[in-house]
Amino acid sequence: MELLTNLYLLLSFAMCRGQRSSCDRCDPRLACDCSHAGYTLVPTVTDRALTLDLSFNDIAVVTGGDLTGHEKLRILILHRNRLSEIHPSAFDSLWSLEQLDLSDNQLTAINRRWFSKLGALQELNLLHNPYSCLGSRPVLQRLRRLKRLMFGGPALEELRRRDLSGVSQLEELTVQANNLRRYESGALADVWPLGRVTLSLHGPFLTNIALASDVIGDVSYPETPIILKDLHLNQSVQPFREMARRRVRRITFCNLSVSDKGIVDFLEAVDGEPITSLFMDGVTLIGEGRWEKARLTDHKNIDEFFLRNVVVLNVFQFSSLLQLGFLLQYPRKVSIINSQVFVMPCATTHLLLNLQYLDLSDNLLTDLTLTETLCNGDGTLKDLRVLNVSGNALKSLSTVSRLVTNLSKLTHLDVSRNGFISMPGGCSWPSTLRYLNISWAKLTTISPCLPETLEVLDLSNNDLKAFFLILPSLRELHLSGNKILSLPPGWMFPNLQTLTIQSNTLNMFTRSDLQAYRRLQDLWAGQNKFVCSCDFVYFLQSAIKGGEDVHLSDGEDAYVCDSPLYLRGEPAGRVRLSVVVCRRVLFVSVSCVVALIIGILVCVLLWRLHAFWYLRMMWAWLKAKRSSRRRQRREELLSYDAFVSYSERDASWVENVLVPELEEPRENDGDSLNPRPLTLCLHKRDFLPGHWIVDNIMSAMERSRRTVFILSENFVQSEWCRYELDFSHFQLFDGETGSNAAILILLEPLSKDDIPKRFCKLRKLMSSTTYLEWPREEERSGEFWRKVRNALRDEEEEEEEG
């Protein structure tokens, strides 16, 4: 049969291997949550995973290779799948596995080979599977480190002596055996020491009391708490006599149906035994409350009664608890939780002679019925130290304070989840009160009603907008879930060590706010709507890194920005703000200074490069270019035949040679007409005094038909000559000034390559314009001057023809 199973699994694996999905839902702690994902096969996950949760899927088979390579895996959860087959070697590679959950599946048999390599396993859950026994051979023999074992289900029918062989000690054992039919005495007895034991023995208690007694007897030890689930305590109480014989001290009943007679029988069965704690959770009580038969039993060792979720059928037929005086006089702790208690008569309260702890939470008490329960505050419960009346229908805090003021040993009072709307101006409290819980009420303000002796105060989940009250002894203050805008002043709480103020309307807090708390160690202030200003972000990041005395206990992810809008939703601890945002004044000041310095440098540079001259020159040219009557105005403005551009170092030649030759009348040189003297514009002679030299240059060139450039080494080295050349270049490309506006005269031999590259316009002119060279031979000078005059007159003739 096993061979066929293995073949089936191998075939299934071969067919489905290529169809496995992947799961990438792993957090930074390498815990992979692949639950509720509809997987039918074990998905592939990173081999670095420490936790793998595959619960609530549809996985039916785990093959031999599904978990290969997961040597680091510590927790594997396969709860609530459809597992019916697991390959014998499926878990062989999980050497580090500490927790394995196979509960709520369809495993009909437990194979010991599953656990043969799981030497590190500490917790194994096999609950709610349809196997009838744990196997023909011991299945847990190699699990030497096992601490928590849960097994059983609706089909478990047999437990044999060697089933738990190899398991020597457990912290927790849970056995679900509601349909157990055969139990070999001693099957659970070898496990010792044994911590908490949970047994579900509904069927055996109904049909086989001896079997139930054997099971309970094998796990009953004085220090082992026993939890019995799903019982009808109306049959024989023989199993409890076995427990009493083993001197069990703590017994818990869960989901219990019991009559008053059943309780009496139980009390008689454990008469005189050292039971110290009796817990009942989920109790349905029937009968009329007749306890007379148990009045002579001895239960002076009982220290604690715990009742929760109790339902009394026919409660109006139920007699008073006064007849239980023999039982109520001993316990120091009594809890009756969520049991629809609306009053405990004062006469019953008087029976609780040794009571130190009373929990009546989640019931139906009102101010009036609490007054009856506490005997109108006469101090009946003189030893009471802890009182919990949370989750009732109380409305008056002043009534509560009056009722407890005479409880001279009361240290803890919990009145949370009640209907308090306001707080009176003054209250009377016992001087011993140290802990007060008024959370989940509807308080909007606080008052000096709160006692100064408090060390722990919980006002969470109210409607408080501020907290101003001096409490010198306070060590813990809990204000989460209110509408508080800022931290309470620290000087009011000189001994405060812990402050929780989560989920308020807190915008920010500063280092000085926290320094006001002289002894504050732990702060819980997350889940607020923080304004992530620069100061707040820098301070918070410093606190996260441990740079502050106060520890942010709820972690950096709890501090999330709400504004500015572009940071909304970002953890404040990981926000990076720029200098522009955080040092705006400094940034603007530095920027202005830098801009001013750059502006000054640029202006100096432009001044040195005479850029302003170029701009003015361009502006003048553009204005002239756009004018529709420019040519007419130009004709009217023309005053000179030529503007002579030359270097100051060449002034001697210009003044002594060029000017006399062109401006003075000449004798007839053979031409039919005596040449007319020309009018030249020279900067020394014709520039207007008091005007900017640039304006003079532009005006002179505008008023001249031609521009004559006297080229020489001196010209090339003159910046002003360059400006004159640039403006002439504009005129050259202006269609209305003609293409021969510039005349070049080389005073000395000068090639284009000798001209610096910065005189780009001059180099271009020399490439595109014919130039005249001043002859070295005197006999050729006449021809030179004739060419100059002809060049200057050509434009005049063209204009006259036009």
TrEMBL record:
GO molecular function: transmembrane signaling receptor activity; triacyl lipopeptide binding
Signal peptide positions (record): 1-18
Name the UniProt record assigns to this protein: Toll-like receptor 2
Disulfide bonds: C26-C32, C346-C375, C427-C449
Pfam families: LRR_8, TIR
Subcellular location: Membrane
Transmembrane segments: 585-607
GO BP of this protein: inflammatory response; innate immune response; toll-like receptor signaling pathway
Role description: Cooperates with LY96 to mediate the innate immune response to bacterial lipoproteins and other microbial cell wall components. Cooperates with TLR1 or TLR6 to mediate the innate immune response to bacterial lipoproteins or lipopeptides. Acts via MYD88 and TRAF6, leading to NF-kappa-B activation, cytokine secretion and the inflammatory response.
Organism encoding this protein: Champsocephalus gunnari (Mackerel icefish)
InterPro entries, alphabetized: Cys-rich_flank_reg_C, Leu-rich_rpt, Leu-rich_rpt_typical-subtyp, LRR_dom_sf, TIR_dom, Toll-like_receptor, Toll_tir_struct_dom_sf
Domain of life: Eukaryota
